[in-house]
Predict the structure.
Amino acid sequence: MKIKAAILWELGQPLSVEEVELAEPRPTEMLVEVKAAGVCHSDLHPARGDWPMRTPLVLGHEGAGIVRQVGAEVTRAKVGDHVVFCWAPPCGVCEMCRAGRPVLCERLEKTVYRNRLPAGGTRLRARDQELYHFNATACFADHAVLCEEGVIPVSEDISFEALATLGCAVVTGVGAAINAARVEAGSQIVVIGAGGVGLNVIQGAVIAGAEKIIAIDARARPLELAHAFGATEAIAAAPENLRQVRELTGGRGADYVFDTVGLPDTLNAALNLVRKGGTVVLTGLSRIDATASINTFPFVMQEKRLIGSVYGSGQPLRDIPKLIELNRQGKLKLRELVARTYAIEEINEALDALAAGEGARGIIRW
Protein backbone atom coordinates (compact mmCIF):
# COMPACT_ATOMS: atom_id res chain seq x y z
CA MET A 1 0.00 0.00 0.00
CA LYS A 2 1.03 3.61 -0.53
CA ILE A 3 1.70 5.64 2.63
CA LYS A 4 3.28 8.98 3.51
CA ALA A 5 6.42 8.87 5.65
CA ALA A 6 9.31 11.07 6.81
CA ILE A 7 12.55 9.60 5.46
CA LEU A 8 16.09 10.27 6.65
CA TRP A 9 18.06 9.71 3.47
CA GLU A 10 21.38 10.82 4.95
CA LEU A 11 22.56 11.24 8.53
CA GLY A 12 22.57 14.85 9.65
CA GLN A 13 20.28 16.02 6.84
CA PRO A 14 16.62 17.18 6.97
CA LEU A 15 13.93 14.52 6.67
CA SER A 16 11.98 14.25 3.43
CA VAL A 17 8.23 13.58 3.56
CA GLU A 18 7.20 11.53 0.55
CA GLU A 19 5.24 8.56 -0.73
CA VAL A 20 6.47 5.15 0.43
CA GLU A 21 5.41 1.62 -0.45
CA LEU A 22 4.51 -0.43 2.66
CA ALA A 23 4.31 -4.22 2.19
CA GLU A 24 1.68 -6.46 3.77
CA PRO A 25 2.32 -7.61 7.36
CA ARG A 26 3.69 -11.13 7.81
CA PRO A 27 1.80 -13.74 9.91
CA THR A 28 3.25 -12.46 13.22
CA GLU A 29 2.81 -8.78 12.34
CA MET A 30 0.05 -6.20 12.08
CA LEU A 31 -0.71 -3.04 10.17
CA VAL A 32 -1.44 -0.02 12.36
CA GLU A 33 -2.81 3.34 11.28
CA VAL A 34 -0.64 5.82 13.17
CA LYS A 35 -2.67 8.53 14.89
CA ALA A 36 0.02 10.29 16.97
CA ALA A 37 3.79 10.05 17.30
CA GLY A 38 6.04 11.72 19.85
CA VAL A 39 9.22 13.51 18.77
CA CYS A 40 12.00 12.22 21.02
CA HIS A 41 15.73 12.88 21.36
CA SER A 42 16.30 9.34 20.14
CA ASP A 43 14.85 10.52 16.82
CA LEU A 44 16.90 13.71 16.93
CA HIS A 45 20.24 11.94 17.34
CA PRO A 46 20.22 10.13 13.96
CA ALA A 47 18.65 13.17 12.31
CA ARG A 48 21.61 15.23 13.57
CA GLY A 49 24.16 12.55 12.75
CA ASP A 50 25.05 11.76 16.38
CA TRP A 51 24.44 8.04 16.03
CA PRO A 52 25.97 6.02 13.19
CA MET A 53 23.37 3.89 11.43
CA ARG A 54 22.34 2.80 7.98
CA THR A 55 20.14 4.99 5.86
CA PRO A 56 17.64 5.49 4.29
CA LEU A 57 15.55 5.26 7.40
CA VAL A 58 12.00 6.11 8.50
CA LEU A 59 12.28 7.60 11.98
CA GLY A 60 9.73 7.62 14.82
CA HIS A 61 9.44 5.18 17.72
CA GLU A 62 7.01 6.75 20.20
CA GLY A 63 3.55 6.19 18.78
CA ALA A 64 -0.07 5.17 19.10
CA GLY A 65 -2.74 4.20 16.61
CA ILE A 66 -5.47 1.80 15.49
CA VAL A 67 -4.93 -1.76 14.26
CA ARG A 68 -6.18 -2.10 10.68
CA GLN A 69 -4.94 -5.58 9.70
CA VAL A 70 -3.49 -8.55 11.58
CA GLY A 71 -1.41 -11.51 10.44
CA ALA A 72 -2.75 -15.05 10.69
CA GLU A 73 -0.73 -15.86 13.84
CA VAL A 74 -1.42 -12.66 15.79
CA THR A 75 -3.32 -13.12 19.06
CA ARG A 76 -2.33 -10.01 21.06
CA ALA A 77 -4.57 -7.56 19.19
CA LYS A 78 -7.47 -7.45 16.74
CA VAL A 79 -8.62 -5.10 14.04
CA GLY A 80 -9.97 -1.87 15.55
CA ASP A 81 -7.93 -2.02 18.75
CA HIS A 82 -6.27 1.17 19.97
CA VAL A 83 -2.61 0.44 20.69
CA VAL A 84 0.55 2.01 22.11
CA PHE A 85 3.80 1.09 20.38
CA CYS A 86 6.58 -0.70 22.28
CA TRP A 87 9.89 -0.06 20.55
CA ALA A 88 11.65 -2.86 22.47
CA PRO A 89 9.48 -5.90 21.59
CA PRO A 90 10.73 -8.86 23.66
CA CYS A 91 11.12 -12.35 22.23
CA GLY A 92 9.96 -13.88 25.54
CA VAL A 93 12.31 -16.86 25.37
CA CYS A 94 15.91 -15.61 25.69
CA GLU A 95 17.79 -15.62 28.98
CA MET A 96 17.05 -11.96 29.74
CA CYS A 97 13.34 -12.34 28.97
CA ARG A 98 13.10 -15.45 31.15
CA ALA A 99 14.85 -13.51 33.94
CA GLY A 100 12.10 -10.86 33.85
CA ARG A 101 14.27 -8.24 32.11
CA PRO A 102 12.69 -7.97 28.64
CA VAL A 103 14.16 -4.52 27.91
CA LEU A 104 17.51 -6.36 27.65
CA CYS A 105 16.10 -8.98 25.26
CA GLU A 106 18.84 -10.54 23.16
CA ARG A 107 16.76 -10.29 19.98
CA LEU A 108 16.79 -6.49 20.13
CA GLU A 109 20.48 -6.24 19.27
CA LYS A 110 20.06 -8.52 16.27
CA THR A 111 17.00 -6.84 14.76
CA VAL A 112 15.48 -3.76 16.41
CA TYR A 113 18.77 -1.95 17.04
CA ARG A 114 19.70 -2.65 13.43
CA ASN A 115 16.39 -1.05 12.41
CA ARG A 116 14.91 -4.25 11.03
CA LEU A 117 11.69 -5.94 12.07
CA PRO A 118 11.96 -8.99 14.37
CA ALA A 119 10.56 -11.27 11.64
CA GLY A 120 13.41 -10.10 9.44
CA GLY A 121 14.04 -7.45 6.84
CA THR A 122 11.98 -4.39 6.04
CA ARG A 123 8.51 -3.70 4.65
CA LEU A 124 9.32 -0.21 3.33
CA ARG A 125 10.48 0.94 -0.11
CA ALA A 126 10.90 4.30 -1.81
CA ARG A 127 12.86 5.44 -4.88
CA ASP A 128 13.48 1.75 -5.67
CA GLN A 129 15.35 1.28 -2.38
CA GLU A 130 14.60 -0.55 0.85
CA LEU A 131 14.05 1.72 3.85
CA TYR A 132 14.91 0.74 7.42
CA HIS A 133 12.38 0.87 10.29
CA PHE A 134 13.84 2.95 13.13
CA ASN A 135 13.66 0.81 16.30
CA ALA A 136 11.41 -1.59 14.35
CA THR A 137 8.67 1.04 14.67
CA ALA A 138 9.06 3.74 11.97
CA CYS A 139 6.02 5.71 13.10
CA PHE A 140 6.80 9.05 11.43
CA ALA A 141 4.35 7.71 8.86
CA ASP A 142 0.59 7.43 8.54
CA HIS A 143 0.79 3.61 8.73
CA ALA A 144 3.32 1.19 10.19
CA VAL A 145 3.88 -2.56 10.25
CA LEU A 146 4.84 -3.82 13.71
CA CYS A 147 5.49 -7.22 15.25
CA GLU A 148 2.90 -8.61 17.64
CA GLU A 149 5.08 -7.92 20.70
CA GLY A 150 5.52 -4.33 19.55
CA VAL A 151 1.98 -3.20 20.39
CA ILE A 152 0.04 -2.88 23.64
CA PRO A 153 -3.76 -2.78 23.33
CA VAL A 154 -5.37 -0.05 25.44
CA SER A 155 -8.87 1.29 26.05
CA GLU A 156 -10.33 3.95 23.80
CA ASP A 157 -10.99 6.60 26.45
CA ILE A 158 -7.55 8.27 26.32
CA SER A 159 -6.48 10.61 23.52
CA PHE A 160 -3.89 9.45 21.02
CA GLU A 161 -1.68 12.43 21.92
CA ALA A 162 -1.54 11.22 25.52
CA LEU A 163 -1.01 7.60 24.47
CA ALA A 164 1.92 8.52 22.20
CA THR A 165 3.92 9.89 25.12
CA LEU A 166 3.56 6.57 26.96
CA GLY A 167 5.58 4.60 24.43
CA CYS A 168 8.93 6.06 25.43
CA ALA A 169 9.17 9.20 27.60
CA VAL A 170 6.67 8.20 30.28
CA VAL A 171 7.62 4.57 30.76
CA THR A 172 11.33 5.48 30.63
CA GLY A 173 11.16 8.28 33.19
CA VAL A 174 8.67 6.81 35.63
CA GLY A 175 10.36 3.43 35.41
CA ALA A 176 13.80 4.91 36.11
CA ALA A 177 12.48 6.21 39.42
CA ILE A 178 10.34 3.25 40.44
CA ASN A 179 12.03 0.23 38.85
CA ALA A 180 15.70 1.18 38.48
CA ALA A 181 16.33 3.43 41.50
CA ARG A 182 13.45 2.15 43.61
CA VAL A 183 13.03 5.59 45.13
CA GLU A 184 11.92 5.35 48.74
CA ALA A 185 9.21 7.44 50.39
CA GLY A 186 10.62 10.50 52.13
CA SER A 187 13.78 10.61 50.02
CA GLN A 188 15.41 13.62 48.38
CA ILE A 189 16.17 13.48 44.67
CA VAL A 190 17.75 15.59 41.94
CA VAL A 191 16.78 15.37 38.28
CA ILE A 192 19.27 16.80 35.79
CA GLY A 193 17.39 17.69 32.63
CA ALA A 194 13.67 18.50 32.69
CA GLY A 195 12.81 17.35 29.19
CA GLY A 196 10.37 14.58 28.27
CA VAL A 197 12.13 11.88 30.30
CA GLY A 198 13.11 14.20 33.15
CA LEU A 199 9.52 15.36 33.71
CA ASN A 200 8.49 11.74 34.01
CA VAL A 201 11.29 10.92 36.43
CA ILE A 202 9.78 13.71 38.51
CA GLN A 203 6.32 12.13 38.20
CA GLY A 204 7.75 8.75 39.19
CA ALA A 205 9.40 10.27 42.25
CA VAL A 206 6.11 11.89 43.27
CA ILE A 207 4.32 8.55 42.92
CA ALA A 208 7.05 6.89 45.02
CA GLY A 209 6.55 9.47 47.79
CA ALA A 210 9.79 11.46 47.51
CA GLU A 211 9.85 14.38 49.93
CA LYS A 212 12.07 16.78 47.98
CA ILE A 213 12.46 16.81 44.19
CA ILE A 214 15.00 19.25 42.76
CA ALA A 215 15.00 19.81 38.99
CA ILE A 216 18.06 21.28 37.26
CA ASP A 217 18.01 22.53 33.68
CA ALA A 218 19.79 25.20 31.65
CA ARG A 219 16.52 26.47 30.15
CA ALA A 220 13.69 28.46 31.72
CA ARG A 221 10.68 26.72 30.12
CA PRO A 222 11.59 23.17 31.26
CA LEU A 223 12.07 24.50 34.81
CA GLU A 224 8.57 26.00 34.73
CA LEU A 225 7.18 22.66 33.60
CA ALA A 226 9.15 20.83 36.29
CA HIS A 227 7.17 22.65 38.97
CA ALA A 228 3.91 21.74 37.24
CA PHE A 229 4.88 18.06 37.21
CA GLY A 230 5.79 17.88 40.89
CA ALA A 231 9.27 19.33 41.47
CA THR A 232 9.55 21.08 44.82
CA GLU A 233 12.53 23.12 43.60
CA ALA A 234 13.67 24.12 40.11
CA ILE A 235 17.09 25.69 39.69
CA ALA A 236 19.11 26.81 36.68
CA ALA A 237 22.19 24.77 35.78
CA ALA A 238 25.23 26.65 37.12
CA PRO A 239 28.57 26.04 38.88
CA GLU A 240 26.91 26.77 42.23
CA ASN A 241 24.47 23.85 41.90
CA LEU A 242 26.51 21.75 44.33
CA ARG A 243 26.19 24.39 47.05
CA GLN A 244 22.49 24.90 46.29
CA VAL A 245 21.68 21.18 46.45
CA ARG A 246 23.65 20.76 49.67
CA GLU A 247 21.72 23.64 51.21
CA LEU A 248 18.42 22.12 50.12
CA THR A 249 19.30 18.66 51.44
CA GLY A 250 20.63 19.51 54.88
CA GLY A 251 24.25 19.48 53.72
CA ARG A 252 24.25 15.80 52.67
CA GLY A 253 23.42 15.77 48.99
CA ALA A 254 20.57 13.91 47.32
CA ASP A 255 19.64 10.29 47.96
CA TYR A 256 19.14 9.76 44.22
CA VAL A 257 20.34 11.80 41.26
CA PHE A 258 18.99 11.13 37.76
CA ASP A 259 21.04 12.25 34.76
CA THR A 260 18.59 12.38 31.86
CA VAL A 261 21.04 14.25 29.62
CA GLY A 262 23.97 11.84 29.49
CA LEU A 263 26.83 14.25 28.79
CA PRO A 264 30.21 13.88 30.55
CA ASP A 265 29.63 17.14 32.43
CA THR A 266 26.16 16.17 33.63
CA LEU A 267 27.35 12.75 34.79
CA ASN A 268 30.15 14.29 36.82
CA ALA A 269 27.71 16.80 38.26
CA ALA A 270 25.38 13.96 39.25
CA LEU A 271 28.18 12.11 41.05
CA ASN A 272 29.00 15.29 43.00
CA LEU A 273 25.38 15.99 43.90
CA VAL A 274 24.58 12.53 45.33
CA ARG A 275 25.19 11.84 49.03
CA LYS A 276 27.36 9.15 50.56
CA GLY A 277 25.72 5.79 49.88
CA GLY A 278 23.43 7.41 47.32
CA THR A 279 22.57 6.32 43.78
CA VAL A 280 23.10 8.01 40.42
CA VAL A 281 20.83 6.75 37.64
CA LEU A 282 21.92 7.45 34.06
CA THR A 283 19.09 7.48 31.51
CA GLY A 284 20.34 10.08 29.04
CA LEU A 285 21.75 9.06 25.66
CA SER A 286 24.09 11.51 23.95
CA ARG A 287 26.53 10.81 21.13
CA ILE A 288 27.39 7.14 20.85
CA ASP A 289 31.10 7.98 21.20
CA ALA A 290 30.67 10.14 24.33
CA THR A 291 32.98 9.20 27.21
CA ALA A 292 33.31 10.62 30.70
CA SER A 293 36.30 10.73 33.02
CA ILE A 294 35.08 10.23 36.59
CA ASN A 295 36.72 10.11 40.01
CA THR A 296 36.68 6.51 41.28
CA PHE A 297 37.46 7.37 44.91
CA PRO A 298 33.85 8.09 46.02
CA PHE A 299 32.66 4.68 44.80
CA VAL A 300 34.78 3.00 47.43
CA MET A 301 35.15 5.46 50.31
CA GLN A 302 31.64 6.89 50.05
CA GLU A 303 29.91 3.85 48.57
CA LYS A 304 28.20 5.85 45.85
CA ARG A 305 26.45 3.80 43.17
CA LEU A 306 26.13 4.45 39.42
CA ILE A 307 23.55 2.47 37.45
CA GLY A 308 22.06 2.68 33.97
CA SER A 309 18.40 2.47 33.07
CA VAL A 310 16.91 1.76 29.64
CA TYR A 311 13.21 2.02 28.80
CA GLY A 312 12.20 2.14 32.46
CA SER A 313 14.08 -1.02 33.53
CA GLY A 314 10.82 -2.90 33.75
CA GLN A 315 8.38 -4.80 31.57
CA PRO A 316 6.73 -2.30 29.18
CA LEU A 317 3.99 -4.71 28.09
CA ARG A 318 2.92 -4.88 31.73
CA ASP A 319 3.91 -1.40 32.90
CA ILE A 320 2.19 0.73 30.26
CA PRO A 321 -1.34 -0.43 31.21
CA LYS A 322 -0.48 0.34 34.85
CA LEU A 323 0.58 3.85 33.85
CA ILE A 324 -2.73 4.36 32.06
CA GLU A 325 -4.54 3.38 35.26
CA LEU A 326 -2.46 5.90 37.22
CA ASN A 327 -3.54 8.53 34.72
CA ARG A 328 -7.20 7.61 35.25
CA GLN A 329 -6.67 8.01 38.99
CA GLY A 330 -5.24 11.49 38.52
CA LYS A 331 -1.78 10.42 39.71
CA LEU A 332 0.04 10.72 36.37
CA LYS A 333 -0.07 13.52 33.81
CA LEU A 334 -0.12 12.45 30.15
CA ARG A 335 -1.93 14.97 27.94
CA GLU A 336 -0.15 17.75 29.86
CA LEU A 337 3.15 16.50 28.43
CA VAL A 338 2.09 17.59 24.93
CA ALA A 339 3.27 21.13 24.36
CA ARG A 340 3.17 21.33 20.56
CA THR A 341 1.44 19.45 17.73
CA TYR A 342 2.59 19.23 14.12
CA ALA A 343 1.55 17.76 10.80
CA ILE A 344 3.96 15.19 9.34
CA GLU A 345 5.05 17.82 6.77
CA GLU A 346 6.36 19.87 9.73
CA ILE A 347 8.62 17.13 11.07
CA ASN A 348 11.82 19.15 10.63
CA GLU A 349 10.29 22.06 12.55
CA ALA A 350 9.38 19.61 15.32
CA LEU A 351 12.97 18.33 15.49
CA ASP A 352 14.31 21.90 15.54
CA ALA A 353 12.02 22.79 18.45
CA LEU A 354 13.24 19.73 20.34
CA ALA A 355 16.86 20.67 19.71
CA ALA A 356 16.18 24.21 20.91
CA GLY A 357 14.90 22.86 24.23
CA GLU A 358 11.38 24.25 24.05
CA GLY A 359 10.24 21.80 26.72
CA ALA A 360 7.83 18.87 27.12
CA ARG A 361 6.79 16.86 24.05
CA GLY A 362 6.11 17.75 20.46
CA ILE A 363 3.61 15.39 18.79
CA ILE A 364 3.05 14.56 15.14
CA ARG A 365 -0.73 14.24 14.76
CA TRP A 366 -2.79 12.73 11.96
In short: Residues 137 and 299 are 39 Å apart (CA to CA). The longest strand covers residues 29-39.
